[in-house]
Amino acid sequence: MAEQFSVPVTVRGYETDVQGHLNQSVYLQYAEHARWSMLHAAGISQAKLADRRVGPVVLETTIRYRRELLAGDEVEVTCAFIWGEGKSFRMEQTVRKADGTVSAEITAVCGLMDLTERRLLPGPRDVFKSLSTDPSHFED
């Protein structure tokens, strides 16, 4: 199994709400940033996906907020694929402060869409691997 992928993020002041907490919508942006960073690390760019006429889509997202984040907090956002047998897969992500405190757990149900047919593709892991220069990111 490959080491879990993560990216560092520093909470910026403009991302906080009136209580001084990280705004709830920004957690989704951090999760999306980690997912695209993981694809880039695997050698998959948006241009490569567009050339193949496929694109990742999010079908459902659940966020469990555990501890607040404030401006200046340093966090790691992890990203892991959980593969199934069908057309969809899960992304499990954790936003964790430098001291190890979990701030949020994010689970997304995703798929890989054929952009011409506007339908989910079967076997998304195989498609990702075929586009990748480093397929280890798509292993269990």
How would you describe what is shown here?
By secondary structure, the chain is of the alpha+beta class. It has a single domain (5-131), classed as Thiol Ester Dehydrase, Chain A (Roll), CATH 3.10.129.10. Helix content is 24%, strand content 37%. It contains three helices and six strands. Strands 1, 2, 3, 4, 5 and 6 form a six-stranded antiparallel beta sheet that branches. Strand 5 and strand 6 (119-120) form a beta hairpin. The model has no long low-confidence stretch (mean pLDDT 95).
How many helices does DSSP assign? Answer: 3
Which regions are unreliable across 5 or more consecutive residues at pLDDT < 50?
Answer: none
CATH class: Alpha Beta
CATH homologous superfamily assignment: Hotdog Thioesterase
Write down how many β-strands occur, each being a DSSP E stretch of 2 or more residues. Answer: 6
Which term fits the overall shape? elongated
- How many domain units? 1
Structural class: alpha+beta
How large a portion of the residues is in β-strands, by DSSP E?
A: 35-45%
Oligomer: single chain
Series of H and E elements: EHHEEEEEH
Largest sheet: 6 strands, antiparallel
Assign a percent range to the helix content.
10-25%
